[in-house]
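Handout, section 3.2

Students often ask what a structure token actually looks like in practice. Rather than define it abstractly, here is a full record for Inactive atp-dependent zinc metalloprotease ftshi 1, chloroplastic. The first block is the sequence as you would receive it.
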Amino acid sequence: MAGSEFVEVLVGVGSARIRDLFKRAKVNRPSVIFIDEIDALATRRQGIFSESTDHLYNAATQERETTLNQLLIELDGFDTGKGVIFLGATNRRDLLDPALLRPGRFDRKVCISY
């Protein structure tokens, strides 16, 4: 799936999609969850105001952060020995939220230089 498929303006839709994806992967194991362009849903959180104070925290930002929080919750409860592999790909690692890259969430980080 593409990361942008989880980004919604409607509150709760993105996090529900994340929960459903992990649930389906566990039911249908062995399985692989692959999120391409994970930076679309796991961009560094900005808090109440973005870096530019001209952009107030809005519903779309709140939904993206709620979706990211759900992904982090699913990864925290993820048991690597249970037949499900989680992969994420990005060409903008610098944009990823540090919480996503914390030890225990991704066992391996592979950088492909070009």
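Discussion prompt for tutorial groups: The two ends are 24 Å apart (CA to CA). How would you have guessed this from the sequence alone?
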